[in-house]
Amino acid sequence: MDSILIIAGVGIVVALSVSAAALALALVQVRRQRAVLSQRDQELAGLKEEMRALCAGAVGLDQRMAAVEQRGRQLKERQEQIELREQGDRPYPQAIRMVQNGAGVDELVSVCGLSRNEADLIVMMHRVDAAS
Question: Nearest Cα to 84, choosing from 117, 114, 104, 116?
Fold first, then answer.
């Protein structure tokens, strides 16, 4: 009976030793996983910060682009006004450009201040140029 108790005791000690070793290995794995997770959390935080910076830059760029586009429109309008002033009371070049862009007689009369006959003549002349 003593030998059975000794064998059982040795079995229990071996089982406890194996269990302790398994527990120690599990703890090592948990620590490694925590370290990996901590590193990934830091990488994720860095990526989030970079994304915030990119978004802020995109908003600033969008605002600058809108300002440049607005300035371009203003310059175009100003150029057209200067061209009209240089032409004096004869808005024929503008009327010709408008006809080339598809404007009709009524639009020439209202925008350029031409008589209906002048507008008809410019449209006819443009059609002849387009047919050639």
Answer: 114
pTM over 0.70? The answer is no
Question: Which amino acid belongs to residue 108?
Answer: L
Percent of the chain with pLDDT over 70: 90
Query: Cα–Cα distance between 77 and 80 in angstroms, integer?
Result: 5
Taking phi over 0 as left and psi of -120 to 50 as alpha, with beta for the rest, 88 belongs to left
Q: How far apart are the first and last CA of the chain?
A: 124
Task: Give the relative orientation of helices 92-100 and 116-131 as an angle to the nearest 10 degrees.
Answer: 50
Q: Where are the domains of the chain?
A: 89-132
Give 92-122 pLDDT, tens digit per residue.
888 888 999 988 999 989 888 889 999 999 9
